[in-house]
Predict the 3D structure of the following.
Amino acid sequence: MNRSANVLIALSGAVALTLLPLVAPAYYVGLMIPFYGYAIALLGFNLLFGYTGLLSFGHAMFLGIGAYGAAIMSSTLGVRPFELTLVAVMTASALIALPVGALCVRYTGIFFGMLTLAFGMLFHSFLFKFYYLTGGDSGMRVARMTILGLDFARYNKIEFLAGPFYYYCLGLLVIAGLVMWRIAHSPFGLHLRAVRDNPRKAEYLGVHVHRCRLAAFVISSALGAAGGAILGFRVGLADPELVYWTQSGQLVFMAVLGGFSNFFGPIIGALTFSLLRDQLQSLTEYWRFMLGAILALIVIGFPEGIAGLAGELARRRTRSAT
Amino acid sequence: MSVLLETRKVCKSFGPIRVLEDVSMAVHEGELVSIVGPNGAGKTTLVNLLTGLLEPSAGEVLFMGETIAGVGPVELADRGLARAFQLIQIFPKLTVKETIAAAVISRQRERWRLFSQLTAGDAVDARVNEVAEIFGLTARLEHIGATLSQGEKKLLDVASAFALDPQVILLDEPTSGVSTAEKHGVMKTLIAAAKRAGVKGILLVEHDMDLVAAYSSRIIALSEGRVLADLPPNRFFADPHLIETVIGKRRGH
């Protein structure tokens, strides 16, 4: 896909998301907040998965660091600006990811996956068992914070989420998208893809394989925390469920659903998943079964996900037009 | 003629098994040195020592006068020693341009630039085009590695190693998988490319004695972990006993 096509996709997506609150019911607009949280987390997750070739099964840990960090900042420390919380949780997440990643990136494939899963579960147990620190299964309250220095006091929570916070999150997604686009298309990003394709050859071309993997891990952890902070802020609670391994699986699901070999794939995956889950939940109690069946179909029928399928259709149209 | 790459009395053991015993060898500026020997002679171990993958049990491995024992491939690439593998090694999903650029980025120390556009680096682009032109890959720049022909993949593999601007390049059976009719063509391309790229010395690991005879300045024969001979081709091939030991049994002539 060429550059102008990518710019067009990004622009039309941003415009559609900007107009959405004007046309969609508030319920659906509110539903979009988790989408933004997951989409930002997935932009990071896919730097690790799609670009570096490392599939983490413990990434929900960083969502948890974001959500619990937001709870500590807002409730325990009484910090009001959400921006400060974002900076704090992203920094904390990166600092935690550094030693965890240094251990994990020594392995690849299933071993990397299992090790990240283990760290995720360790963190989950910590949150669950250290009741006095973390609130155990009750979690920790995330208090309402200000955005851009404004507290929007006359809005109730639902209006706030569907209005100012919606646009705020859209802004965050755009910024995260631009930053990740630059990283993915930088010399560093090329080295990540070289590591993914053939680490042995990459080393002989002067690519620092371990350091590249670690850097991708740390960057992805920071975005995970940003996403987690949004998720926690929306619910008003940091909950250990957010760190459970099924949440990590959900991130993988979204990346595969959208197509991890495309830059926009994970965003498309997060959007589809958020809407699909909501629809399926309202239709049937067997929604998990349906989601599983859809994932199986995608993997078998369209291994490159929705983005890959869309790209293929676009190519066919261009071919038949010429 | 200065020494580029050398081993001094190198021994290497894996547990109780001694694979290399007192191996001293050198590649001087302007030389193409071939390493030959039957299977199990220790060629691979020697290559792994020379490329910093292994540390010797005893002795020294020096590149440009400095020790490279166990420094690893990345450091070695930075210092100016490149390696092309016997089996084709490419990046299946990267384009030819990206593959060469990965090496150029390392060479130009751009690897930790997270926010600059890849295509914005004129110096990177210029060097990528130059290397692609030397190896006749200009028309293929935008093609994905996996879609290239076998011969083009081999060229790309070697081209990316050359893109590091190495002082010395180690070629491990560069014509394996290439037809007999083409092998001299490929070797000539490689040697010409090396000269154009400013490579000062080439180390060739090769089974094919036609190539060894035609292009070597010196031949080092290994047998059972020891240096059996270190001679120019005319003297090497004048000794039937030596040829018999090194290749006779394997090639049957």
The radius of gyration of chain A is 19 Å. Chain A has a mean pLDDT of 90.
